[in-house]
Each structure stands twice: as structure tokens, then as C-alpha cells.
């Protein structure tokens, strides 16, 4: 898979540092902070992948272009690593399901249709209640919406309605700004990744369900095939009461 190639550790620290225009000591610092996770050779030499190079360039963009502090960068990269891990889990799950299909194993029970919507995504709170729950002014919630940090739903009458997930996101924004001192540019990057992570998780779950449903349909079709298989006509069984050779005495 293409993602496997991106994860393959190939660059020693001197080459990686040159590729991203940083000092090797800076790369070591970022590793200690958990911002990047280089691999190791059998001799314990750091080896950086294409994905690590992308992450290092993103760190440089956040710090140099957007002025995000290190606490904000740590949040961004933690979410980015979560996205990377989820992609790996998704690919592993797809491979497992394909193996299951090949071996004609019994698929797992599918969730009931009513269970598919995460209740945390159901828009229920009007803006005054949402603002009270997160100890913010309603105007602050409107500002965050304009900045696309949160994405409340709308009622049929166009009233803003906030979900439990929106409340979680608002509390996270407050933590980032008040406790960690992350500037608004950093918060925008972090919340963009949070939305992307939520969307990726939902996409993963939807795809896994779709593949499981496909397996179920195929397994059902296989079980209902005639004994001769799906390809050709099935020969009629001879009548046990008839002589198969009428010319024989």
C-alpha cells in the first residue's frame, strides 16, 4: 500500500534534518517531546520516514508561519499521530475482513440500523444552554463557528443546535486557550484535525460496516446456491425407481 511506503524508515538524522532545513538537535528535541516518532535500525540508529518528514515540515509551518507555541504544536501532532494510527488500523481491519471473506468465515453480527448514529452527534442544545454548559458567552460560540472551530447543526427553523460532541470541542478550545495559552491560529489547526479525526473515525466505521454487509450478502448467496455451484446447470438426479439402462435385462 502507498501508506506503507510513507511509513518506511529510510533517512538518517543528518539527511532528514537537511530535507526539512532544521538542525539535527532540533529533531532530537521534537522526538523527546513526542512530536515525531522515528524508527530505529538494528543498530539503534534513528531512521526517518516520508511521514516523519511531512510531520517535521508541518511543525515548522506551525511555529514559523502561524506562531503556534510548543504546547499547541504538541496538541496538533498528537492528533496527527492519532490520524496516522487510525489509518493503519483501518487498513489492518480491511485486510482482516478480506482474509475473513477468503476463508468464508462467519461474519460478526451487524449493528442494528438504529444504533449507527452516535448519540453524541445529535443536535439538542440551543446556543444559550450550550454557552452555559461550557461557561462561555453566546457571542464567543458564534465567533468560533465563524472560524469553523465548531459546526453546530440547525433546526428546521435555522436555530443553532449543539451536540454533545460540540460541547466536548468547546471545552477543548477553552482548555487550549486558557490552560495551554495556544493562540487562535493554533486552535484552528487543532480543531481542524479534531474534525478530520472525527470524520475519519466515522468513515472507518461506515466502511467496515459496508464491507461486513457485503460479506453477509455473499455468505448468504453462497449458502443458497444449488449443489452444482453457481456456474453451470445442475444435472437431474436419476429417479431411484427407474432402471438407468432400459435396454438391460
Automatic annotation (TrEMBL):
SMART domains noted in UniProt: HTH_MERR
GO molecular function: DNA binding; DNA-binding transcription factor activity
InterPro entries xref list: DNA-bd_dom_put_sf, MerR-type_HTH_dom, MerR_fam
Region of interest (Disordered), residue spans: 222-249
Matching PROSITE patterns: HTH_MERR_2
Annotated HTH merR-type domain residues: 10-79, 124-193
Keyword DNA-binding carried by entry: yes
Acidic residues bias (residue ranges): 234-249
Swiss-Prot/TrEMBL keywords: DNA-binding
Pfam name, any one: MerR_1
Transmembrane segments: none
SUPFAM superfamilies on file: Putative DNA-binding domain
NCBIfam families named in the record: heat_HspR_dupli, HeatShock_HspR
The protein, known as: Putative transcriptional regulator, merR family
Organism of origin: Deinococcus gobiensis (strain DSM 21396 / JCM 16679 / CGMCC 1.7299 / I-0)
